[in-house]
Amino acid sequence: MSIVGALRDGGIVARRNITGVRRTPGALVTGVAQPIIFVLILAFVFGGALGGDEYRQFLIGGILAQTLTFNSSFTAVYLAKDLQTGLIDRFRSLPMSRVGVILGRTTSDLLTSIISIVVIVGCGLAIGWRIEADFGQVVVTFLLLLLFAFATSWIGAFIALTARSVEVAQSLGLLWLFPVCFISGAFVSADMLPGPLRTIAEWNPVTAVATAVRQGFGNEPPSGFAAAGGWPADNALLYASACCVAIIAIFAPIAVTQYRRISKR
Amino acid sequence: MISIRGVRKRFGDHQALDGVDLEVPTGTVQGLLGPNGAGKTTTVRVLTTLLVPDAGEAVVAGHSAITAGHEVRRNLGVSGQYAAVDEKLTGFENLTMVGELYGMRRREAKARARELLRDFRLDDVADGKLAGTYSGGMRRRLDLAGAIVARPPVVILDEPTTGLDPRGRRDTWDAIESLASGGTTVLLTTQYLEEADQLADSIAVIDAGRIIAEGTATELKAQAGGGRIDIVLAPHADLDAARTAARFVGGVDLDERSRRLSGPAPAGSETLQAMLQELGRAGVPVAEAALRQPTLDEVFLRLTGTPATTDDDEVLDDPRVAVAAERVAP
Predict the structure, then answer these.
(1) Which domains can be identified in chain B, with CATH numbers?
(2) What angle do CA B251, B256, B258 make, to 5 degrees?
(3) Which residue of B has its CA nearest to A83?
């Protein structure tokens, strides 16, 4: 199947998905409310103990990385729904690209992530967070966030196509998020974690994205935080981008394989 | 146009298809008749390239469904048992999307969508309303329209009327009939002999993954013993006289409470006529008289010696609609 065909079909499916989301805006409540809740809890419940005002500068990069990871569960649920209603069977009986259906989903779910990013940035600005970087750097940072959202979405797609039911996709799609997002430098410095957790956190892509975003927006860690060290922290943007590419390179092919395999039940 | 040879498929320890052979000539309507779990949907999934069989070959429009799936899908329209329409889109948007995914340009797909909505009498609702608000019959018609957006030479319909009310079934039948009259090759699965009779040129009966009989509806019904007569006597009819009259036709029972005479009709309409003549001679007024099709159960009983097995408890409305119901003035 040609790449042009996949992009064309992906575009058609993405447009269909966006129409669906537009008509059930209630589904977006989680995508909007959840980051607000996280910002408020972390800034005002834990933030006081972690550096107060300074911590808020640190926090937003972490919230962005964590929320976009969580948004992968939207992909999982939407795709599992399409599987359950038989719409995927309809797609599979059409002379269309195999990757097109999933590509359409991961692309349209970027819209949810863009909304989440806007909400977090707005919320951050409201609680005193500031961007202290030049325009080019800020653009690169937002692009990294979109790339990361796109990458995690493929993980969600793989989960949906493996789980095959909405309920299983929903619970599986949420389960992995907690360790991945919290054994990281998203909310504290990775160097503050004990023993092996520190190494995991240092190399965790969520840490890399959070660190790269902080660097990109010119946000310094609170004075009480141990400076994040190690190669991933020193090359955060490079490492974070590489992680995104690697996630897509791994999860896109296995998602497509799962999509093909549904037929061979 | 469709050719299935020796197709086998096993799921765990269940042999879903046990050597299915079926030939459907171009431009004909083939019925595939069988109870739930007989292998109808598995056969459809093989033909529509959704399932790879363990053995055998399936060819659709000159292409192998196993090795040339993309070519098959290009020549094939499918409408499923569970109408696969997008509930968040309008009927028009649904059909436009399917057209585009068949490779049509957007404008072409839109024009075709309008045309189909008109043909399927969905145009008055299609623009504003989401498919999620459609009735069962409308959804099924929309799904059916989706199957023929690209004017494929072959259309496969998996239980197109299961779960529909009588009006929805009638509408769907009309749509399938007009499709067939346009020269499309159609394979249609059904649990209802009457439906296969109405729509198909030829019927294959499938049970436990094998084709156990093939022929026209008339041939199959003859094998099943020609159906049953069902006569309701008018109120105040003389039941004793009716019972006496019934003796002249073998095997007919009278249920006094419902004033219903029923029994086998080995000679079809002739048995019914004979019975009505006897009643007329005895002066017994008749309210309703019908010759019922043998049901799928009766066909199965004849063909397999066992009643049709069903896998689930799905309650479907009884399709045993009288073919020759007439009201006789008392």
Answers:
(1) 2-222 (3.40.50.300), 224-327 (3.30.70.980)
(2) 100
(3) B84
* pLDDT tens for each residue of A94-145: 998 889 999 999 999 999 999 999 999 999 999 989 999 999 999 999 999 9
Asked if B93 and A19 come within 8 Å (Cβ–Cβ), the reply is yes
- Please return the burial class of B78, using the count of CB atoms within 10 Å of its CB with bins 0-12, 13-18 and 19+: buried
Supply the pTM of this predicted model.
0.79
Q: Which residues of chain B from 49 to 68 reach within 8 Å of chain A, CB to CB? A: 49-52
| B306 CB neighbour count, 10 Å cutoff | 10
Question: Is the distance from CB of A125 to CB of A223 less than 8 angstroms?
Answer: no
The reply to whether residue B98 touches residue A93, judged by beta carbons under 8 angstroms, is no
pLDDT band per the 50, 70, 90 thresholds, residue B330: very low
pLDDT for residue B83: 62
Question: How many whole angstroms separate alpha carbon A8 and alpha carbon A5?
Answer: 5
> How many C-beta atoms lie closer than 10 Å to residue B255's C-beta?
11
Most B CBs within 10 A among A18, A84, A94, hence the mutation to make, goes to A94
Nearest to B223 by CA among B287, B294, B314, B290: B294
CA distance to partner chain A, nearest, from residue B174 (Å): 23
Of the candidates A24, A86, A91, the beta carbon closest to that of B82 is on A86
The ipTM estimated for the assembled molecules is 0.85
Q: What percent of chain B has pLDDT over 90?
A: 34
Q: Where are the domains of chain A?
A: 3-264
Q: Is residue B100 within 8 angstroms of chain A, CB to CB?
A: yes
DSSP state of A27: G
Q: Which residues contact B4 (CB under 8 A, 6 or more apart)?
A: B20, B21, B22, B23, B43, B46, B47, B56, B57, B58, B59
Q: Distance between the two ends of chain B, CA-based, in angstroms?
A: 52
* Separation CA A140–CA A153 (nearest Å): 20
Tokens found for residue B320: 């045993």
Q: How far is A86 from chain B, CA to nearest CA, in Å?
A: 5
Which residues on chain A are in Cβ contact (under 8 Å) with B74?
Answer: 95
Of A86, A94, A263, Cβ closest to residue B98? A94
Helical packing angle, B91-101 and B106-119, nearest 10°: 130
CB B47 within 8 A of CB B92: no
The type of residue at B44 is V
Does B310 score more than 70 pLDDT?
no
